[in-house]
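Notebook entry, structure prediction.
Reason for the run: the old model in the group folder had no record of what sequence produced it. Starting over properly, with the input documented here first.
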Amino acid sequence: MNCHPRPAKRGFLLLEMVLALAVFGIAATGFAVALNRMADAAQLAQSELRITRILDSALDETLSLPVLEEGETHSDVGETGIKLKTTIQLKDDLQNEDGVALQDLYRIQIVANWSNDGISQQRTVETWRNGKMYQP
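New structure, fully documented this time:
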């Protein structure tokens, strides 16, 4: 009869270490993929914010003109590769609910075109303004 208890195992087996490394590798890969997707989403949000600010600024600039004239203008936004087309149209065929013609009402539309990773992108803003808004 053996009176001495068996000594407890110490350390990890090679198989346990390989399994632990495999689980860690899978978790690290998932984490890296998630970080990459978050970075892509942040870059897209930053790009959308930039184009929104550019269009807002161009619209504010056009709305602040003292006299509106029908026509179309083209401009480039610095070295961003963004091209703006501003169209101003007099709408003389509009009426209110009572059938009274609305005079000196202009439609202002700004279209931004740019390329993102070789893919053409376009965004449009539009508003209406009375032509005599800034005149005494």
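Summary: The mean pLDDT is 88.
The old model has been moved to the deprecated folder.
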